[in-house]
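Budget justification aside, the reviewers requested a transparent look at the raw inputs and outputs of the sequence design task funded under Objective 1. We therefore reproduce one unedited record. The lines immediately below are the structure tokens for a 992-residue chain.
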């Protein structure tokens, strides 16, 4: 507003009559306070001065009249929601101009701005003619909208700011001294209000200050410096670096940002990183606080068709918390594990799974014995899903089943979610929640429950509301803090140091676009009181230039010359070039001249020509980067600074360059207390663990000893319904249900084989398909139909295979444990191992003779009869055959039982019903005993090398950890000195 001579002029008016009441009218209260602070600092105290905006002053003066008339004032934001309601009604009624136009936040904003501007120009609906507009339909629409708006104000006894003019005209003149900006650019209604209220003889208007680059006058700044950097982050970091280098006082520093989105976040993050106090005149987006993040998680969940992944991510980031004092508290990790494993996926109907899981876990828990080690886990899962059932029930309670909702209702539901579940931690979180509630109250006051919109449109309106809420707004500079402003309000602090960042053409260019509703030619036809786009741009340019002209201290101008994200080059704004010309007295300087003067752009770690250590990164790079910009060999220095990196370097070297074995090759010191305890505490073995060790001992170490697990979460695949494991479980369930029923019928009729029934199999198949469809959502109906047909074809193969079988299935899912305790399986003299697991199926093939089956859905080619144990990777049938025989005998089910054969069974289209037979005899038992002894010995010795077959690495969850370790380890396997260390694992892999 003012600078230099204008500050003195302001002091003369405000200080001339110290005991007289004076009113300083400013564009904002913050601007008025900044001006008076500067006057006091430069010239002395001023007394009895009130700072007002025209709006606040008029509202104060009309407050009593409004109360007497029982009229309530509405703000511009409330007027926006009135226009929104009227536009929706007009669109539903078939308004010609609105046909084909979606009522989006941008459309409502444009119409609301047009209505407010017309009214503040002193115009009413009767003053508008359709002929004023380029299109008659548009003119009719605008005239009717303005008329409906005026009727709304009358019917609801509310008034906007323009509507206060009749009341202001009746108020007596004020005799205080009124100081203000020039009012020639004010709207017509604003000017008339001031003329009605103020005595012309007591009205003082401050001269408009010249722009900072106007004419040939000397620059107002004490000094000017120019810089450019590689992107906003590097630019902001250079600001902090210079503040540290020059030891600038924080409360003598202002940073003016040209692009709020690109720079404010960077300044906020770095200020927290370096412990620099910063205040933000425009505040911060609510997305910076937990409350805002929780709100965005909720909207994202709705927008994605209720994809549970948004809830999982919010829990992982601790944005929301599901525990409370009233409900059972369960760790977030348990919540996350259950949600990721439940395969809820997306779709509202899928959340009914929560209630089903509560019931399923409760039933399974009631059937378990108290000694079963799985009982505690079952009860915990039941408690979690009971909690989830309540949680999701609350979320859906206020949402209609159809995809239609009003923005007011949606905002209310979102606030309920945030209020109940957001992890509120600080004042910013509470401020954001308060802002949301205030906005909701404003919307409800003006328009109540608006008409329903499609969900995606309602979400866009709520997001628009959230974008207008700011936290930590500090319009006035505070002691001990850097003040961050924008191009719309910066330059008035009078501080010693001012940084202007982001001075690129793109950021500094003022838009000259016409208003989308009121075009320039239409404005000229309607009224001379409506400024054109050129006039508005010129006014904004003059106001900004005048404000920046008040900078009198040291000014540092910079811009990002390169966008690393977009891989594009940016050019400086014309103002930066002009400022360079005036500062250097080189009037002919062009962009190339400025670029040469700036030299190499600053990078995130700074400039080699001007080293300054802002943090450890700068200090380290100062040693690694030579003056010519070349990076020195700094590996040793780096490893000294970071011990963990040094350990990684040693591990890589040991794996790649040394032939002797070390802990980096999986040779673990089992004397280590932690490892020994882990090995000794294993309560049982299973076939899957034995086969995992034989396939890759290192993978076994990660999975079983260290307990590192890959995250298993359902991922959306638009071309697949069931993954291979889910499909295998479904087929397994169908086959067991069918054989249980068919075998029971066969035994009832004293048959030697099941009584097969194709219709029974088809019915059970359809039932299982419906159950899985409820549990696991299909991406589309066509994919679902395709995979169902594939499963039906698999059951046909199964049915054909079973009809030719002469045995009777007796047991299904036979457990190899008793009351939770593992089964102690005797393999050889002095060797017994605790085993737990389930046998898919046991058939009786003769008196006291049995055959066990393990269902497979993969390719039968790798189960060759010649490879009985396949290097230790196929021990399941051999181990479970011995275990089943001992279980049947010792339990009394069949004291003469003998498991004589076993089979890997492939009852699918892919496997064509093939079987890989494994005959059982004493010789195989001896081989199995030797194999398991070697496994136990290797584990006990801490031998966990990578696999001898790198093909296994292609599907390994730990591939990112190992890399090509298996390939590099091949040479070490054949190195003579390593033979003794690898003997036990070599013996395991040697069993064919």
């Amino acid at each position: 507003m003012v600078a230099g001579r204008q500050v003195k002029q302001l002091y003369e008016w405000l200080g001339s009559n110290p005991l007289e009441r004076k009113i300083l009218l400013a564009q904002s209260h913050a601007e008025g306070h900044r001006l008076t602070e500067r006057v006091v600092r430069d010239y002395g105290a001023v007394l009895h001065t009130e700072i007002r905006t025209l709006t606040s002053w008029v509202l104060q003066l009309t407050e009593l009249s409004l109360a007497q008339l029982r009229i309530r004032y509405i703000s511009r934001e409330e007027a926006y929601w009135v226009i929104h309601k009227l536009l929706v009604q007009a669109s539903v009624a078939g308004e010609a101009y609105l046909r084909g136009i979606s009522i989006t936040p941008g459309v409502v904003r444009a119409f609301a701005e047009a209505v407010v501007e017309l009214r503040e120009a002193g115009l009413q609906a009767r003053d508008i003619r359709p002929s004023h507009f380029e299109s008659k339909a548009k003119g009719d629409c605008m005239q009717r909208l303005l008329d409906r708006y005026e009727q709304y104000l009358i019917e609801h006894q509310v008034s906007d700011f323009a509507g206060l003019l009749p009341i202001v005209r009746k108020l007596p003149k004020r005799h205080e001294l009124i100081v203000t900006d020039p009012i020639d650019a004010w709207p017509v209604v604003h000017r008339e209000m001031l003329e009605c209220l103020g005595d012309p003889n007591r009205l003082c208007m401050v001269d408009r200050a010249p722009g900072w680059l106007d004419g040939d006058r000397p620059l107002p700044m004490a000094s000017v410096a120019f810089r450019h950097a590689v992107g906003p982050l590097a630019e902001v970091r250079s600001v902090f670096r210079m503040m540290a280098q020059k030891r600038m006082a924080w409360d003598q520093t202002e940073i003016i940002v040209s692009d709020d989105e690109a720079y404010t976040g960077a300044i906020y993050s770095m200020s927290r990183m370096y412990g620099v106090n910063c205040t933000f005149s425009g505040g911060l987006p609510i997305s910076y606080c937990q409350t805002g993040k929780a709100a965005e998680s909720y909207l994202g969940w709705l927008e994605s068709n209720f994809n549970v992944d948004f809830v999982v991510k919010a829990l992982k980031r601790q944005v929301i918390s599901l525990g409370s004092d009233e409900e059972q508290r369960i760790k977030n990790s348990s919540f996350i594990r259950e949600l990721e494993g439940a395969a809820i996926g997306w779709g509202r109907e899928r959340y009914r799974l929560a209630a089903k899981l509560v019931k399923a876990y409760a039933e399974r828990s009631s059937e378990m014995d108290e000694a079963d080690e799985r009982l505690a886990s079952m009860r915990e899962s039941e408690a979690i899903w009971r909690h989830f059932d309540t949680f999701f029930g609350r979320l859906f309670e206020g949402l209609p089943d159809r995809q239609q909702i009003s923005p007011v209702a949606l905002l209310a539901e979102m606030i309920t979610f945030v209020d109940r579940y957001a992890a509120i931690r600080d004042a910013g979180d509470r401020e954001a929640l308060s802002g949301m509630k205030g906005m909701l109250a404003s919307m409800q006051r003006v328009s109540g429950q608006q008409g329903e919109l499609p969900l995606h449109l309602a979400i866009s309106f709520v997001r628009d509301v959230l974008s207008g809420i700011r936290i930590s707004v500090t319009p006035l500079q505070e002691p001990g803090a850097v003040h961050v402003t924008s191009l719309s309000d910066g330059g008035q602090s009078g501080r010693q140091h001012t940084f202007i960042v982001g001075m690129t053409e793109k950021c500094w260019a003022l838009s000259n676009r016409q208003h989308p509703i009121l075009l320039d030619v239409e404005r000229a036809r309607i009224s001379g009181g409506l400024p054109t786009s050129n006039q508005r741009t010129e006014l904004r340019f003059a106001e900004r230039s005048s404000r920046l002209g008040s900078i009198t201290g040291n000014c540092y101008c910079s811009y990002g010359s390169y966008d690393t994200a977009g891989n594009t080059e940016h050019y400086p704004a014309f103002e930066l070039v002009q400022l360079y010309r005036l500062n250097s007295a080189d009037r002919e300087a062009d962009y190339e001249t400025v670029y040469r003067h700036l030299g190499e752009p600053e990078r995130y770690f700074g400039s080699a020509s001007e080293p300054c250590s802002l943090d450890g990164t700068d200090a380290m790079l100062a040693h690694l980067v030579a003056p010519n910009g070349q990076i020195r060999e700094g590996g040793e220095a780096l490893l000294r600074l970071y011990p963990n990196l040094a350990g990684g370097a040693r591990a890589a070297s040991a794996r790649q360059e040394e032939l002797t074995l070390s802990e980096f090759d999986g040779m673990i010191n089992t004397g280590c207390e932690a490892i020994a305890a882990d090995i000794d505490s294993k309560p049982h073995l299973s076939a899957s663990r034995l086969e995992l060790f034989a396939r890759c001992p290192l993978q076994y170490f990660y999975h079983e000893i260290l307990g590192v697990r890959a995250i298993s979460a359902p991922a959306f695949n638009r071309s697949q319904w069931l993954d291979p494991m889910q499909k295998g479980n479904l087929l397994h369930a169908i086959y067991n249900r069918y054989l249980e029923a068919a075998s029971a019928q066969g035994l009832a009729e004293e048959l030697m084989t099941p009584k097969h029934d194709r219709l029974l199999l088809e019915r059970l198949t359809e039932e299982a398909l419906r159950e899985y469809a409820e549990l696991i959502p299909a991406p589309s109906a066509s994919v679902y139909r395709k995979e169902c047909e594939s499963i039906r074809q698999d059951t046909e193969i199964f049915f054909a295979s079973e009809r030719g079988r002469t045995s009777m299935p007796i047991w299904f899912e036979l457990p190899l444990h008793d009351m939770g305790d593992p089964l102690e399986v005797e393999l050889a003299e002095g060797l017994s191992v605790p085993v737990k697991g389930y046998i898919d199926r046991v058939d009786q093939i003769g008196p006291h003779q049995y055959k066990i089956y393990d269902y497979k859905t993969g390719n039968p080619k790798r189960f060759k009869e010649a490879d009985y144990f396949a290097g230790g990777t196929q021990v399941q049938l051999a181990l479970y055959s011995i275990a089943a025989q001992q279980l049947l005998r010792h339990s009394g089910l069949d004291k003469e039982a003998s498991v004589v054969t076993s089979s890997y069974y492939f009852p699918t289209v892919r496997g064509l019903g093939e079987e890989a037979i494994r005959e059982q005899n004493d010789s195989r038992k001896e081989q199995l005993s030797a194999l398991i002894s070697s496994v136990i010995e290797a584990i006990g010795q801490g031998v966990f090398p990578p696999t001898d077959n790198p093909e296994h690495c292609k599907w390994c969850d730990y591939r990112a950890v190992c890399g090509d370790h298996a390939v590099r380890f091949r040479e070490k396997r054949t190195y003579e000195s390593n033979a003794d260390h690898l003997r036990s694992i070599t013996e395991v892999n040697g069993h064919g």
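Residues 117 and 868 are 87 Å apart (CA to CA). The longest strand covers residues 838-846. Computational costs for records of this kind are itemized in the attached budget.
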